[in-house]
Amino acid sequence: MVFMASVSVLLAFLIFLAVAYSDYKNVQIGELFSDLRLLSSFDGDYSVLQFKDRRLTVIAPDGTVLYDSMVGGELENHASRPEVSDAFAYGSGYEMRRSTTVLENMLYAAILSSDGNVIRLSRATSSIYAYILGMVPPLLFLLLLVIVLSAFISLRISRIICEPINSIDLEHPAESGRLYDELAPLARRIEHQNAEISGHLRSLERDKNEFALITGGMKDGFMVVRRGGAVVSMNGAAKRLLGKNPGEEFTSILEIGRYPEFFTILEGGAVDSKMDVGGRVLEIRSELVEDIGSAVFIFDVSEKEALDRKEREFVQNVSHELRTPITSISGYSELIASGTADNEHVTEFSRLINKEAVRLARLIDDILDLSRLESVPADEFSGVDLETVAADVASSFSGRNLELVSESPVRVSGRSDLIFEAVYNLVDNAFKYNRNDNPVTILVSGTSISVSDRGIGLSPEDRQRVFDRFYRVDKSRSRETGGTGLGLSIVKRIADMHGADISISSTLGEGTVITISFRPI
Ligand code: ADP
Q: Could you tell me the pTM of the whole model?
Protein backbone atom coordinates (compact mmCIF):
# COMPACT_ATOMS: atom_id res chain seq x y z
CA MET A 1 0.00 0.00 0.00
CA VAL A 2 2.86 2.38 0.91
CA PHE A 3 4.58 1.49 -2.33
CA MET A 4 1.46 2.07 -4.41
CA ALA A 5 0.72 5.38 -2.71
CA SER A 6 4.32 6.59 -3.15
CA VAL A 7 4.41 5.59 -6.82
CA SER A 8 1.06 7.30 -7.43
CA VAL A 9 2.20 10.50 -5.74
CA LEU A 10 5.48 10.50 -7.67
CA LEU A 11 3.71 9.88 -10.97
CA ALA A 12 1.18 12.64 -10.22
CA PHE A 13 4.10 14.86 -9.28
CA LEU A 14 5.88 14.16 -12.58
CA ILE A 15 2.77 14.72 -14.65
CA PHE A 16 2.10 17.91 -12.77
CA LEU A 17 5.68 19.06 -13.38
CA ALA A 18 5.41 18.32 -17.09
CA VAL A 19 2.15 20.24 -17.38
CA ALA A 20 3.45 23.12 -15.25
CA TYR A 21 6.65 23.25 -17.28
CA SER A 22 4.79 23.36 -20.58
CA ASP A 23 2.30 25.98 -19.26
CA TYR A 24 5.03 28.14 -17.86
CA LYS A 25 6.95 27.91 -21.13
CA ASN A 26 3.86 28.97 -23.10
CA VAL A 27 3.26 31.89 -20.75
CA GLN A 28 6.88 32.98 -21.18
CA ILE A 29 6.65 32.70 -24.97
CA GLY A 30 3.38 34.68 -24.90
CA GLU A 31 5.05 37.40 -22.85
CA LEU A 32 8.01 37.52 -25.28
CA PHE A 33 5.62 37.88 -28.25
CA SER A 34 3.57 40.68 -26.61
CA ASP A 35 6.81 42.50 -25.79
CA LEU A 36 7.96 41.97 -29.41
CA ARG A 37 4.72 43.45 -30.71
CA LEU A 38 5.31 46.57 -28.59
CA LEU A 39 8.92 46.74 -29.78
CA SER A 40 7.95 46.37 -33.45
CA SER A 41 6.19 49.72 -33.27
CA PHE A 42 9.30 51.33 -31.71
CA ASP A 43 11.25 53.21 -34.32
CA GLY A 44 13.93 54.83 -32.12
CA ASP A 45 17.36 53.61 -31.25
CA TYR A 46 17.11 50.27 -29.46
CA SER A 47 20.19 50.95 -27.40
CA VAL A 48 18.28 53.44 -25.29
CA LEU A 49 15.99 50.66 -24.11
CA GLN A 50 16.74 48.81 -20.88
CA PHE A 51 16.35 44.99 -20.91
CA LYS A 52 16.66 43.52 -17.49
CA ASP A 53 16.63 39.79 -18.10
CA ARG A 54 16.01 39.75 -21.85
CA ARG A 55 18.09 40.07 -24.92
CA LEU A 56 16.97 41.89 -28.05
CA THR A 57 18.46 41.05 -31.40
CA VAL A 58 17.65 42.75 -34.74
CA ILE A 59 18.41 40.71 -37.84
CA ALA A 60 18.44 41.99 -41.40
CA PRO A 61 16.74 39.89 -44.14
CA ASP A 62 20.17 38.51 -45.16
CA GLY A 63 20.72 37.25 -41.62
CA THR A 64 23.21 39.93 -40.57
CA VAL A 65 22.78 40.91 -36.95
CA LEU A 66 22.07 44.61 -36.95
CA TYR A 67 21.77 44.96 -33.19
CA ASP A 68 22.12 42.82 -30.09
CA SER A 69 21.33 44.18 -26.62
CA MET A 70 23.64 41.78 -24.83
CA VAL A 71 26.54 41.17 -27.20
CA GLY A 72 28.37 44.03 -28.87
CA GLY A 73 30.47 43.75 -32.01
CA GLU A 74 30.21 41.38 -34.96
CA LEU A 75 27.92 38.41 -34.64
CA GLU A 76 27.65 35.51 -37.01
CA ASN A 77 24.88 35.30 -39.58
CA HIS A 78 21.56 34.42 -37.88
CA ALA A 79 19.53 33.52 -41.03
CA SER A 80 19.69 29.84 -40.23
CA ARG A 81 18.32 30.20 -36.66
CA PRO A 82 14.97 28.37 -36.77
CA GLU A 83 12.95 31.15 -35.04
CA VAL A 84 14.55 33.73 -37.41
CA SER A 85 13.96 31.75 -40.58
CA ASP A 86 10.36 31.05 -39.38
CA ALA A 87 9.82 34.78 -38.75
CA PHE A 88 11.08 35.67 -42.24
CA ALA A 89 8.96 32.92 -43.77
CA TYR A 90 5.73 33.09 -41.69
CA GLY A 91 5.96 36.36 -39.77
CA SER A 92 6.83 34.77 -36.40
CA GLY A 93 8.77 31.89 -34.87
CA TYR A 94 10.10 30.61 -31.57
CA GLU A 95 12.43 28.02 -30.18
CA MET A 96 14.16 26.90 -27.01
CA ARG A 97 17.80 25.88 -27.29
CA ARG A 98 21.22 26.50 -25.96
CA SER A 99 22.70 29.72 -27.17
CA THR A 100 26.09 29.39 -28.77
CA THR A 101 26.58 33.12 -28.15
CA VAL A 102 25.78 33.46 -24.42
CA LEU A 103 26.20 29.75 -23.65
CA GLU A 104 22.92 29.39 -21.77
CA ASN A 105 19.60 27.61 -22.40
CA MET A 106 17.46 30.25 -23.98
CA LEU A 107 13.86 30.75 -25.09
CA TYR A 108 13.70 32.66 -28.38
CA ALA A 109 10.72 34.46 -30.00
CA ALA A 110 10.99 36.43 -33.25
CA ILE A 111 8.64 38.45 -35.45
CA LEU A 112 9.01 40.18 -38.77
CA SER A 113 8.78 43.94 -38.21
CA SER A 114 7.35 46.39 -40.68
CA ASP A 115 10.80 47.58 -41.79
CA GLY A 116 11.57 44.09 -43.17
CA ASN A 117 13.98 43.15 -40.35
CA VAL A 118 13.29 40.44 -37.81
CA ILE A 119 13.36 41.43 -34.17
CA ARG A 120 14.02 38.72 -31.71
CA LEU A 121 13.61 38.61 -27.93
CA SER A 122 15.07 35.90 -25.80
CA ARG A 123 15.38 35.08 -22.16
CA ALA A 124 17.19 32.47 -20.14
CA THR A 125 15.16 29.30 -19.33
CA SER A 126 16.71 29.04 -15.88
CA SER A 127 13.71 30.88 -14.53
CA ILE A 128 11.48 27.91 -15.60
CA TYR A 129 13.62 25.50 -13.62
CA ALA A 130 13.67 27.79 -10.64
CA TYR A 131 9.90 27.89 -10.82
CA ILE A 132 9.69 24.11 -10.98
CA LEU A 133 12.31 23.59 -8.27
CA GLY A 134 10.27 25.79 -6.01
CA MET A 135 7.51 23.18 -6.14
CA VAL A 136 9.72 20.30 -4.97
CA PRO A 137 9.73 20.91 -1.18
CA PRO A 138 5.93 20.98 -0.80
CA LEU A 139 5.66 17.96 -3.05
CA LEU A 140 8.26 16.08 -1.01
CA PHE A 141 6.35 16.98 2.11
CA LEU A 142 3.22 15.65 0.47
CA LEU A 143 5.02 12.43 -0.47
CA LEU A 144 6.20 11.96 3.10
CA LEU A 145 2.72 12.60 4.40
CA VAL A 146 1.27 10.05 1.99
CA ILE A 147 3.87 7.47 3.03
CA VAL A 148 3.21 7.98 6.73
CA LEU A 149 -0.56 8.05 6.29
CA SER A 150 -0.67 5.01 4.02
CA ALA A 151 1.64 3.09 6.38
CA PHE A 152 -0.54 3.98 9.31
CA ILE A 153 -3.77 3.12 7.47
CA SER A 154 -2.42 -0.14 6.05
CA LEU A 155 -1.25 -1.20 9.52
CA ARG A 156 -4.66 -0.38 10.96
CA ILE A 157 -6.45 -2.26 8.19
CA SER A 158 -4.24 -5.34 8.44
CA ARG A 159 -4.79 -5.34 12.18
CA ILE A 160 -8.54 -5.07 11.73
CA ILE A 161 -8.43 -7.96 9.21
CA CYS A 162 -6.01 -10.19 11.05
CA GLU A 163 -7.06 -9.84 14.65
CA PRO A 164 -10.35 -11.70 14.31
CA ILE A 165 -8.56 -14.41 12.26
CA ASN A 166 -5.89 -14.81 14.92
CA SER A 167 -8.46 -14.95 17.66
CA ILE A 168 -10.54 -17.67 15.98
CA ASP A 169 -11.16 -20.59 18.34
CA LEU A 170 -10.09 -23.40 15.97
CA GLU A 171 -12.16 -25.92 17.91
CA HIS A 172 -15.39 -23.90 17.62
CA PRO A 173 -14.76 -21.21 14.96
CA ALA A 174 -18.43 -20.24 14.55
CA GLU A 175 -18.61 -19.26 18.21
CA SER A 176 -15.69 -16.81 17.99
CA GLY A 177 -17.30 -13.45 18.80
CA ARG A 178 -15.33 -11.03 16.63
CA LEU A 179 -15.85 -12.62 13.22
CA TYR A 180 -16.83 -10.33 10.35
CA ASP A 181 -19.01 -11.49 7.45
CA GLU A 182 -16.14 -12.28 5.08
CA LEU A 183 -14.71 -14.72 7.62
CA ALA A 184 -17.91 -16.77 7.94
CA PRO A 185 -17.08 -19.14 5.01
CA LEU A 186 -13.64 -19.78 6.52
CA ALA A 187 -15.20 -20.51 9.92
CA ARG A 188 -17.73 -22.86 8.31
CA ARG A 189 -14.94 -24.65 6.42
CA ILE A 190 -12.88 -25.09 9.62
CA GLU A 191 -15.99 -26.33 11.44
CA HIS A 192 -16.63 -28.82 8.63
CA GLN A 193 -13.04 -30.02 8.61
CA ASN A 194 -13.05 -30.34 12.40
CA ALA A 195 -16.08 -32.61 12.11
CA GLU A 196 -14.34 -34.65 9.40
CA ILE A 197 -11.12 -34.93 11.41
CA SER A 198 -12.92 -36.05 14.57
CA GLY A 199 -14.84 -38.59 12.46
CA HIS A 200 -11.56 -39.93 11.10
CA LEU A 201 -10.06 -39.97 14.59
CA ARG A 202 -13.05 -41.90 15.92
CA SER A 203 -12.77 -44.49 13.16
CA LEU A 204 -9.00 -44.72 13.71
CA GLU A 205 -9.61 -45.25 17.42
CA ARG A 206 -12.20 -47.91 16.60
CA ASP A 207 -9.79 -49.65 14.21
CA LYS A 208 -7.05 -49.47 16.82
CA ASN A 209 -9.32 -50.97 19.49
CA GLU A 210 -10.42 -53.72 17.11
CA PHE A 211 -6.81 -54.43 16.24
CA ALA A 212 -5.86 -54.53 19.93
CA LEU A 213 -8.85 -56.79 20.66
CA ILE A 214 -7.94 -59.21 17.88
CA THR A 215 -4.22 -59.34 18.61
CA GLY A 216 -4.87 -59.29 22.38
CA GLY A 217 -7.03 -62.41 22.06
CA MET A 218 -4.37 -64.30 20.12
CA LYS A 219 -2.52 -67.05 21.92
CA ASP A 220 0.47 -66.49 19.67
CA GLY A 221 2.72 -63.47 19.99
CA PHE A 222 2.38 -60.67 17.46
CA MET A 223 4.42 -57.49 17.08
CA VAL A 224 4.70 -54.74 14.50
CA VAL A 225 8.21 -53.34 14.38
CA ARG A 226 9.46 -50.46 12.26
CA ARG A 227 12.75 -50.63 10.41
CA GLY A 228 15.20 -49.32 12.99
CA GLY A 229 13.52 -51.25 15.80
CA ALA A 230 10.67 -49.00 17.01
CA VAL A 231 7.87 -51.16 18.43
CA VAL A 232 4.54 -50.02 16.96
CA SER A 233 2.41 -52.71 18.52
CA MET A 234 2.96 -55.76 20.71
CA ASN A 235 0.24 -58.04 21.98
CA GLY A 236 -0.03 -59.60 25.45
CA ALA A 237 0.98 -63.06 24.21
CA ALA A 238 4.23 -61.68 22.76
CA LYS A 239 5.04 -60.06 26.12
CA ARG A 240 4.20 -63.25 27.99
CA LEU A 241 6.22 -65.49 25.67
CA LEU A 242 9.22 -63.15 25.80
CA GLY A 243 9.02 -63.17 29.62
CA LYS A 244 7.72 -59.62 30.06
CA ASN A 245 4.85 -58.23 32.17
CA PRO A 246 1.59 -57.45 30.36
CA GLY A 247 1.76 -53.80 31.53
CA GLU A 248 5.29 -53.19 30.24
CA GLU A 249 5.70 -50.95 27.18
CA PHE A 250 8.68 -50.95 24.85
CA THR A 251 9.81 -48.25 22.47
CA SER A 252 12.58 -50.33 20.89
CA ILE A 253 12.72 -54.04 20.16
CA LEU A 254 16.16 -54.14 21.80
CA GLU A 255 14.61 -53.15 25.14
CA ILE A 256 12.84 -56.53 25.07
CA GLY A 257 16.07 -58.43 24.61
CA ARG A 258 19.21 -58.40 22.51
CA TYR A 259 18.42 -61.56 20.56
CA PRO A 260 20.24 -62.01 17.21
CA GLU A 261 16.84 -62.40 15.49
CA PHE A 262 15.83 -58.94 16.76
CA PHE A 263 18.88 -57.38 15.11
CA THR A 264 17.88 -58.96 11.78
CA ILE A 265 14.31 -57.61 12.13
CA LEU A 266 15.65 -54.18 13.06
CA GLU A 267 17.70 -54.12 9.85
CA GLY A 268 14.58 -54.99 7.84
CA GLY A 269 15.56 -58.62 7.23
CA ALA A 270 13.18 -61.59 7.29
CA VAL A 271 13.45 -64.09 10.15
CA ASP A 272 12.28 -67.67 10.41
CA SER A 273 14.06 -69.38 13.26
CA LYS A 274 13.79 -70.76 16.78
CA MET A 275 15.07 -69.17 19.93
CA ASP A 276 15.32 -70.24 23.57
CA VAL A 277 13.66 -67.82 25.98
CA GLY A 278 13.36 -68.70 29.66
CA GLY A 279 13.51 -72.44 29.02
CA ARG A 280 10.88 -72.32 26.29
CA VAL A 281 11.44 -72.85 22.60
CA LEU A 282 9.92 -70.01 20.55
CA GLU A 283 9.53 -69.99 16.82
CA ILE A 284 9.91 -66.47 15.48
CA ARG A 285 8.85 -65.47 12.01
CA SER A 286 8.84 -62.03 10.48
CA GLU A 287 7.14 -60.81 7.33
CA LEU A 288 8.14 -57.56 5.68
CA VAL A 289 5.22 -55.17 5.31
CA GLU A 290 5.82 -52.35 2.87
CA ASP A 291 5.87 -48.84 4.37
CA ILE A 292 5.40 -50.24 7.88
CA GLY A 293 8.32 -52.50 8.75
CA SER A 294 7.96 -56.07 9.92
CA ALA A 295 5.06 -58.11 11.23
CA VAL A 296 6.59 -60.49 13.74
CA PHE A 297 4.86 -63.72 14.82
CA ILE A 298 6.01 -65.66 17.87
CA PHE A 299 4.84 -69.22 18.50
CA ASP A 300 5.50 -71.33 21.57
CA VAL A 301 6.70 -74.62 20.11
CA SER A 302 8.13 -76.02 23.36
CA GLU A 303 5.55 -78.79 23.59
CA LYS A 304 5.83 -79.67 19.92
CA GLU A 305 9.61 -79.70 20.24
CA ALA A 306 9.39 -81.94 23.34
CA LEU A 307 6.97 -84.25 21.51
CA ASP A 308 9.25 -84.36 18.48
CA ARG A 309 12.17 -85.18 20.74
CA LYS A 310 10.14 -87.87 22.49
CA GLU A 311 9.14 -89.25 19.11
CA ARG A 312 12.75 -89.40 17.97
CA GLU A 313 13.83 -91.02 21.21
CA PHE A 314 10.98 -93.52 20.91
CA VAL A 315 11.98 -94.52 17.39
CA GLN A 316 15.60 -94.86 18.53
CA ASN A 317 14.52 -96.94 21.53
CA VAL A 318 12.20 -99.13 19.47
CA SER A 319 14.92 -99.94 16.96
CA HIS A 320 17.38 -100.60 19.77
CA GLU A 321 14.92 -102.80 21.68
CA LEU A 322 14.01 -104.75 18.55
CA ARG A 323 17.62 -105.21 17.54
CA THR A 324 18.63 -106.81 20.87
CA PRO A 325 16.43 -109.97 20.61
CA ILE A 326 16.99 -110.17 16.85
CA THR A 327 20.77 -110.14 17.39
CA SER A 328 20.43 -112.95 19.97
CA ILE A 329 18.12 -114.98 17.72
CA SER A 330 20.37 -114.63 14.67
CA GLY A 331 23.49 -115.39 16.78
CA TYR A 332 22.07 -118.62 18.30
CA SER A 333 20.49 -119.77 15.05
CA GLU A 334 23.75 -119.21 13.23
CA LEU A 335 25.56 -121.37 15.78
CA ILE A 336 22.96 -124.13 15.32
CA ALA A 337 23.01 -123.80 11.53
CA SER A 338 26.80 -123.99 11.34
CA GLY A 339 26.70 -127.27 13.28
CA THR A 340 29.24 -126.06 15.84
CA ALA A 341 26.79 -126.56 18.74
CA ASP A 342 26.37 -130.04 20.24
CA ASN A 343 22.93 -131.51 20.98
CA GLU A 344 22.80 -130.21 24.51
CA HIS A 345 23.60 -126.67 23.32
CA VAL A 346 21.15 -126.92 20.43
CA THR A 347 18.36 -127.51 22.97
CA GLU A 348 19.60 -124.64 25.13
CA PHE A 349 20.00 -122.28 22.14
CA SER A 350 16.56 -123.21 20.82
CA ARG A 351 15.06 -122.39 24.22
CA LEU A 352 16.88 -119.03 24.21
CA ILE A 353 15.78 -118.35 20.62
CA ASN A 354 12.20 -119.10 21.66
CA LYS A 355 12.48 -116.85 24.70
CA GLU A 356 13.83 -113.97 22.61
CA ALA A 357 11.13 -114.54 19.98
CA VAL A 358 8.43 -114.41 22.68
CA ARG A 359 10.00 -111.20 24.03
CA LEU A 360 10.12 -109.79 20.53
CA ALA A 361 6.47 -110.64 20.02
CA ARG A 362 5.57 -109.06 23.37
CA LEU A 363 7.56 -105.98 22.48
CA ILE A 364 5.78 -105.65 19.16
CA ASP A 365 2.43 -106.22 20.92
CA ASP A 366 3.23 -103.49 23.45
CA ILE A 367 4.36 -101.04 20.75
CA LEU A 368 1.19 -101.75 18.77
CA ASP A 369 -0.84 -101.37 21.96
CA LEU A 370 0.68 -97.98 22.60
CA SER A 371 0.05 -96.72 19.07
CA ARG A 372 -3.50 -98.16 19.15
CA LEU A 373 -4.14 -96.20 22.36
CA GLU A 374 -3.22 -92.94 20.59
CA SER A 375 -6.45 -93.13 18.59
CA VAL A 376 -9.16 -94.36 20.96
CA PRO A 377 -12.09 -91.91 20.82
CA ALA A 378 -13.53 -90.82 24.17
CA ASP A 379 -17.11 -91.23 22.96
CA GLU A 380 -16.68 -95.00 23.22
CA PHE A 381 -16.66 -94.67 27.01
CA SER A 382 -19.43 -96.16 29.10
CA GLY A 383 -20.09 -97.00 32.74
CA VAL A 384 -17.46 -99.40 34.08
CA ASP A 385 -17.72 -101.43 37.28
CA LEU A 386 -14.19 -101.45 38.71
CA GLU A 387 -14.98 -104.42 40.95
CA THR A 388 -15.88 -106.57 37.91
CA VAL A 389 -12.68 -105.50 36.08
CA ALA A 390 -10.60 -106.32 39.17
CA ALA A 391 -12.27 -109.75 39.44
CA ASP A 392 -11.51 -110.42 35.74
CA VAL A 393 -7.84 -109.53 36.27
CA ALA A 394 -7.72 -111.70 39.39
CA SER A 395 -9.10 -114.67 37.45
CA SER A 396 -6.33 -114.18 34.84
CA PHE A 397 -3.83 -114.67 37.67
CA SER A 398 -5.63 -117.65 39.28
CA GLY A 399 -3.30 -119.84 41.24
CA ARG A 400 -1.11 -116.84 42.16
CA ASN A 401 -1.01 -115.22 45.59
CA LEU A 402 -3.46 -112.43 44.72
CA GLU A 403 -6.18 -110.98 46.92
CA LEU A 404 -9.02 -108.72 45.93
CA VAL A 405 -10.47 -106.18 48.36
CA SER A 406 -13.45 -104.01 47.51
CA GLU A 407 -14.65 -101.02 49.54
CA SER A 408 -17.84 -99.26 48.38
CA PRO A 409 -16.96 -99.27 44.66
CA VAL A 410 -18.42 -96.56 42.40
CA ARG A 411 -18.97 -96.96 38.65
CA VAL A 412 -16.64 -94.87 36.54
CA SER A 413 -16.70 -93.63 32.97
CA GLY A 414 -14.33 -95.48 30.63
CA ARG A 415 -13.63 -98.52 28.56
CA SER A 416 -13.52 -101.72 30.59
CA ASP A 417 -11.07 -103.50 28.22
CA LEU A 418 -8.54 -100.67 28.60
CA ILE A 419 -8.99 -100.49 32.39
CA PHE A 420 -8.55 -104.28 32.46
CA GLU A 421 -5.30 -103.92 30.49
CA ALA A 422 -3.98 -101.26 32.88
CA VAL A 423 -4.80 -103.26 36.03
CA TYR A 424 -3.45 -106.44 34.41
CA ASN A 425 -0.11 -104.67 33.71
CA LEU A 426 0.06 -103.41 37.31
CA VAL A 427 -0.60 -106.88 38.76
CA ASP A 428 1.87 -108.42 36.30
CA ASN A 429 4.55 -105.96 37.47
CA ALA A 430 3.65 -106.55 41.12
CA PHE A 431 4.39 -110.25 40.66
CA LYS A 432 7.47 -109.59 38.51
CA TYR A 433 9.07 -107.29 41.08
CA ASN A 434 7.78 -109.20 44.12
CA ARG A 435 9.81 -110.93 46.76
CA ASN A 436 9.33 -114.36 48.32
CA ASP A 437 5.93 -114.85 46.76
CA ASN A 438 4.42 -112.21 49.00
CA PRO A 439 0.74 -111.57 48.34
CA VAL A 440 -0.35 -108.95 45.80
CA THR A 441 -3.51 -107.00 46.57
CA ILE A 442 -6.02 -105.32 44.25
CA LEU A 443 -8.02 -102.75 46.20
CA VAL A 444 -11.12 -101.17 44.69
CA SER A 445 -12.19 -98.16 46.73
CA GLY A 446 -14.73 -95.66 45.44
CA THR A 447 -13.52 -94.55 42.01
CA SER A 448 -9.94 -95.71 42.47
CA ILE A 449 -8.23 -98.99 42.04
CA SER A 450 -4.80 -99.79 43.46
CA VAL A 451 -2.38 -102.66 43.20
CA SER A 452 0.03 -103.20 46.07
CA ASP A 453 2.91 -105.58 46.55
CA ARG A 454 5.55 -106.23 49.12
CA GLY A 455 8.33 -106.45 46.55
CA ILE A 456 11.57 -104.66 45.84
CA GLY A 457 10.07 -101.15 45.85
CA LEU A 458 11.09 -98.07 43.89
CA SER A 459 13.47 -95.22 44.78
CA PRO A 460 12.01 -91.66 44.62
CA GLU A 461 14.06 -90.92 41.43
CA ASP A 462 12.82 -94.07 39.69
CA ARG A 463 9.24 -93.30 40.69
CA GLN A 464 9.50 -90.14 38.54
CA ARG A 465 10.68 -92.04 35.50
CA VAL A 466 8.96 -95.45 35.48
CA PHE A 467 6.18 -94.12 33.23
CA ASP A 468 8.71 -93.13 30.52
CA ARG A 469 8.75 -95.46 27.55
CA PHE A 470 11.40 -98.17 27.73
CA TYR A 471 12.52 -97.06 31.19
CA ARG A 472 13.59 -99.94 33.36
CA VAL A 473 15.21 -99.67 36.79
CA ASP A 474 17.21 -102.86 36.44
CA LYS A 475 17.59 -103.80 32.78
CA SER A 476 18.93 -107.30 33.36
CA ARG A 477 16.20 -108.20 35.86
CA SER A 478 13.54 -106.77 33.56
CA ARG A 479 15.05 -108.73 30.68
CA GLU A 480 15.01 -111.84 32.83
CA THR A 481 11.32 -111.36 33.62
CA GLY A 482 10.54 -110.59 29.95
CA GLY A 483 9.78 -106.90 30.61
CA THR A 484 9.71 -104.42 27.71
CA GLY A 485 9.78 -101.14 29.65
CA LEU A 486 6.46 -100.24 28.04
CA GLY A 487 4.00 -101.70 30.59
CA LEU A 488 3.73 -98.61 32.82
CA SER A 489 3.73 -96.28 29.76
CA ILE A 490 0.63 -98.14 28.59
CA VAL A 491 -0.92 -97.83 32.07
CA LYS A 492 -0.18 -94.08 32.13
CA ARG A 493 -1.59 -93.60 28.65
CA ILE A 494 -4.80 -95.43 29.60
CA ALA A 495 -5.10 -93.34 32.79
CA ASP A 496 -4.58 -90.12 30.78
CA MET A 497 -7.26 -91.15 28.29
CA HIS A 498 -9.70 -91.54 31.17
CA GLY A 499 -8.64 -88.24 32.77
CA ALA A 500 -7.55 -90.35 35.74
CA ASP A 501 -4.74 -89.57 38.19
CA ILE A 502 -2.04 -92.10 38.76
CA SER A 503 0.14 -92.15 41.86
CA ILE A 504 2.93 -94.33 43.25
CA SER A 505 3.81 -94.75 46.87
CA SER A 506 6.76 -97.01 47.44
CA THR A 507 9.60 -97.78 49.81
CA LEU A 508 12.72 -99.53 48.56
CA GLY A 509 12.78 -103.10 49.80
CA GLU A 510 9.30 -102.92 51.30
CA GLY A 511 6.87 -102.72 48.44
CA THR A 512 4.92 -100.55 46.07
CA VAL A 513 1.35 -99.27 45.78
CA ILE A 514 0.21 -97.87 42.43
CA THR A 515 -3.23 -96.24 42.42
CA ILE A 516 -5.37 -95.07 39.51
CA SER A 517 -8.11 -92.64 40.56
CA PHE A 518 -10.89 -92.40 37.97
CA ARG A 519 -13.58 -89.80 37.61
CA PRO A 520 -17.05 -90.81 38.69
CA ILE A 521 -19.70 -91.00 35.96
P1 ADP B 1 8.75 -103.67 32.34
O2 ADP B 1 8.20 -104.27 31.15
O3 ADP B 1 10.25 -103.62 32.36
O4 ADP B 1 8.14 -104.16 33.59
P5 ADP B 1 7.27 -101.33 32.97
O6 ADP B 1 7.03 -100.09 32.20
O7 ADP B 1 6.09 -102.13 33.35
O8 ADP B 1 8.35 -102.13 32.20
O9 ADP B 1 7.98 -100.90 34.28
C10 ADP B 1 9.09 -100.06 34.20
C11 ADP B 1 10.06 -100.35 35.33
O12 ADP B 1 9.47 -99.98 36.58
C13 ADP B 1 10.38 -101.80 35.48
O14 ADP B 1 11.46 -102.17 34.69
C15 ADP B 1 10.69 -101.93 36.95
O16 ADP B 1 12.05 -101.69 37.17
C17 ADP B 1 9.89 -100.83 37.60
N18 ADP B 1 8.66 -101.38 38.26
C19 ADP B 1 7.45 -101.50 37.72
N20 ADP B 1 6.56 -102.00 38.59
C21 ADP B 1 7.23 -102.19 39.73
C22 ADP B 1 6.87 -102.72 41.03
N23 ADP B 1 5.62 -103.10 41.32
N24 ADP B 1 7.82 -102.76 41.97
C25 ADP B 1 9.07 -102.37 41.70
N26 ADP B 1 9.50 -101.90 40.51
C27 ADP B 1 8.57 -101.80 39.52
A: 0.53
